[in-house]
Each structure stands twice: as structure tokens, then as C-alpha cells.
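can u do me a favor
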């Protein structure tokens, strides 16, 4: 209930609750916890606040993000909301989603993504372009 009141989303609250319980089970010095309820409440509150910060970062990022495909196609009347972008991104195949996330949201360049994934840099560029096109197509289809 604490987490639900803070984050306002049942799914996020459940995830936070599970993460809090997992943190408790992984904690090596359980005997040092004097007030288990207070300890779990504290963990839950901190994780809830972290979730809000994460959502805020996503929101700010998506508000600042200028869609290069939108500029290229000159569909200036199309607007995207955060939920539709997130849904379209999660519907992409894993390899496209991973590369788009690393490049657009995490700020890695193609060379760094290549080192992380072990995929050639040219392949990363191709996957990025295809993933971007698929994301734009999915967003455009949802707007239609």
C-alpha cells in the first residue's frame, strides 16, 4: 500500500514489493534487523522513490527527444505520448530494442555498443536504422 500510494500504479507497486522482499532474502545479516516491518517499509519507500525518479527521467528524455524520422518525413502534425512510445519500443524484437535503448536513452555511441554486445559496428548501425524505422512505423500505425 505504501508503494502504491507513492507510485500510483499497481504493477509498479507489485514490482517494488517483490524487489523489496528479494532484497530482504539476499540480505546476509538478517539477525541485525531489529524492526523487520520498519526495515521493509524503508526499503519499499526508497525503491518507490527510485521508481518515480526513473519515470521522471523517461518523461524528461522523451520530452527532449526530437524524432529524426519525424523531421525527415515532415509529419509535423503527428504527436506521440510516452505510453505509445514505450509500448511500441517494447513490441520491437529484442535486438532492435536493446540497440535503440543503448544509443538513444543511455547515450552510447556505435563503437561502445559494438564492444558491449560483441557485434560489428556496421551491423550495429544497420540494426539501429532498421529498429528506428520499425519504431517509427509502429508509432505511425498506432496514430492512424
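np, heres the sequence
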Amino acid at each position: 500500500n505504501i508503494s502504491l500510494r507513492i507510485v500510483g500504479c499497481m504493477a509498479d507497486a507489485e514490482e517494488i514489493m517483490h524487489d523489496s522482499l528479494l532484497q530482504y532474502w539476499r540480505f546476509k545479516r538478517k539477525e541485525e534487523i531489529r524492526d523487520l516491518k520498519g526495515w521493509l517499509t524503508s526499503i519499499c519507500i526508497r525503491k518507490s522513490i527510485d521508481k518515480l525518479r526513473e519515470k521522471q527521467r523517461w518523461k524528461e528524455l522523451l520530452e527532449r527527444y526530437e524524432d529524426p524520422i519525424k523531421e525527415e518525413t515532415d509529419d509535423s502534425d503527428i504527436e506521440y505520448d510516452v505510453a505509445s512510445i514505450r509500448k511500441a519500443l517494447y513490441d520491437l524484437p529484442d535486438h532492435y530494442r536493446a540497440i535503440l535503448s543503448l544509443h538513444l536513452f543511455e547515450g552510447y555511441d556505435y563503437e561502445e555498443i559494438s564492444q558491449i554486445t560483441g557485434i560489428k559496428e556496421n551491423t550495429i548501425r544497420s540494426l539501429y536504422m532498421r529498429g528506428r524505422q520499425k519504431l517509427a512505423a509502429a508509432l505511425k500505425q498506432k496514430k492512424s
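Residues 73-77 have pLDDT under 50 and may be disordered. hope that helps!!
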